[in-house]
Amino acid sequence: MIIINQQTLPKALVIWLHGLGADQNDFISFIEKLHLNNFMFILPNAPFRKITMNQGYEMRGWYDIDSLNFKTQDNLGLNESKALIESIIQSKYNVLNRPKLFIGGFSQGAALAQYIGLNSKFEFTKIISLSGYLPDMVITENKSHQKILAIHGVYDDIISINIAKSSYEKYKINKNFVLKEYKMGHEVIEEEIFDVRNYLLSD
Description:
single chain; alpha/beta; Rossmann fold; seven-stranded mixed β-sheet; two-stranded antiparallel sheet; 9 strands; globular
């Protein structure tokens, strides 16, 4: 786990989750380019697990994936990772005098961020999903107007934008859900730094 801008009274605490096969280091540069020095960022590591889609090869993953159609869901893995992230928040949040709380991530990390943000005892100010999708879940009434920003590439060949949009149908009654599309693949581009910074700073 990496902590960026560690301080006793941050304006906000941001949990940022990496993608499948990556680790805590992948988004250090991205976070530093946000230039939000009064925000404290926590970048956890996913545990190593066998990934069915990758012939059972063991790598860092928040949960198992059997194919890129995402029709079969590893609820056990999702809930194990949810518990892990919540334990990290629990150990930091009250000590920091309960600042604004954000969660976001990329790809599989973005999917987990939404799963946690909409299914947690913690109240998140906003959720950010980069190149992700919404896992199959029931969104309760008290979470139905959660502020969420999703950014996706129209040429994404890992998580198809059509699959992402289909999963986001559950948000159709949520006026606080925003989907932004870029002409890009499964990647992070400079424009997203601007988008994420503005979103974290806006009301």
